[in-house]
Amino acid sequence: MLPSCLCSLRRLGAGGPQTPPPQCLQPGGRGLLVGGVATRRNHAPWAGPAPRLFSGSSKSRLGLASGLECDLATNLVGQPLVRQQVMKGVKEFLQNPSPAKPLVMSFHGSTGTGKTYVSSMLVRHLFQGGLRSPYVHHFSPIVHFPHAEHIEQYKENLKRWIQGNLTSCGRSAFLFDEMDKMHPGLIDVIMPFLGPSWVVYGTNYRKAIFIFISNAGGEQINEMTLDLWRAHRDREEISLQDAESAISKAVFENPQSGFWKSGIINEHLIDFVVPFLPLKHHHVKQCVVNELVQQGLEVRQGMVQEVADSIPYFPEEEKIFSSTGCKTVASRISFFF
Ligand SMILES: Nc1ncnc2c1ncn2[C@@H]1O[C@H](COP(=O)(O)OP(=O)(O)OP(=O)(O)O)[C@@H](O)[C@H]1O
């Protein structure tokens, strides 16, 4: 049973106007890691309380989780397993004032299935300002770690960046996009931050959130979903265990993957491996409707059908699952409107 629909509250500013986060804000607290180099030092020791959103009771933290749950239920199309897994992780984590380890989730699936969408939804509910919050750190290999020859420097910078920001504010989130494009070996530098150890370099890192996003395992998930469809079974019947082992195998066997031979996988540091399933035609139609509503445009069924029909589907013959998920929906609407 869903909680009463509170999801519009934060979007409308239920947390009040966008007040600057009073706590955890330290000089140099916003900065960018450009080309693997922090543009501002961010290591100021900070003894203040956690950000407002995290400093309340476990009840008020669970209120944030309810908002997320509602948003996922209302806007995320065709991914009940994702909803279930993400909410399980977030609720358990927020409920516990003293978590045993950071929350580490890894999102896998083919393009346009909602990985980035869900991660930004998650941080929007948990952090005022969402992706723009100074406590949310978003890394993209192409932007932040572009040159393989600088990997040692990147490792040092990344470790210092995480350490500095977690020393300043333990309730921070770190998003690693396009893990399949990350240089193998780089990500292992953050291993000490992902485990249950109480203190690393003098700080408790158990309250952080780490999210990895990648296409790795997407083909295997699609294949498993297709097999279910051929067996006349629901795509949601995909077993989490099977999906997890297929994903682990796929990332582990790919020498291009950021997780290749990674201790993060070996040491089982990921708490939730979240498979994003390929979307069907009717899901794409729902994405079109959502997009029209969001853009304030009139929803005309004929046009919804046309946009959904214009997207490529696989397998070639039966055309069951969208090859690009809902990714191109927004850009296509202008052609048909
Ligand atoms: N399951 C979904 N439910 C609702 N909207 C979706 C879903 N999947 C994708 N979308 C829409 O498509 C857009 C692109 O999706 P998103 O960026 O999350 O894809 P992705 O899985 O991260 O893809 P990629 O692997 O290419 O980065 C989203 O901003 C959202 O509007």
From TrEMBL:
Localisation per UniProt entry: Endoplasmic reticulum lumen
Positions of ATP binding: G109, S110, T111, G112, T113, G114, K115, T116
Listed InterPro entries: ClpA/B, P-loop_NTPase, TOR1A_C, Torsin, Torsin_1/2
Hydrolase is among the record's keywords: no
Source organism superkingdom: Eukaryota
One Gene Ontology cellular component: endoplasmic reticulum lumen
Pfam family membership, one: TOR1A_C
Principal location listed in the UniProt entry: endoplasmic reticulum
Keyword Nucleotide-binding: yes
Domain Torsin-1A C-terminal residues, every copy: 279-336
GO molecular function, one term: ATP hydrolysis activity
Keywords, alphabetical: ATP-binding, Endoplasmic reticulum, Glycoprotein, Nucleotide-binding, Signal
Protein family according to the UniProt entry: Belongs to the ClpA/ClpB family. Torsin subfamily.
PANTHER family xrefs: TORSIN, TORSIN-2A
The protein, known as: Torsin
Organism: Anser cygnoides (Swan goose)
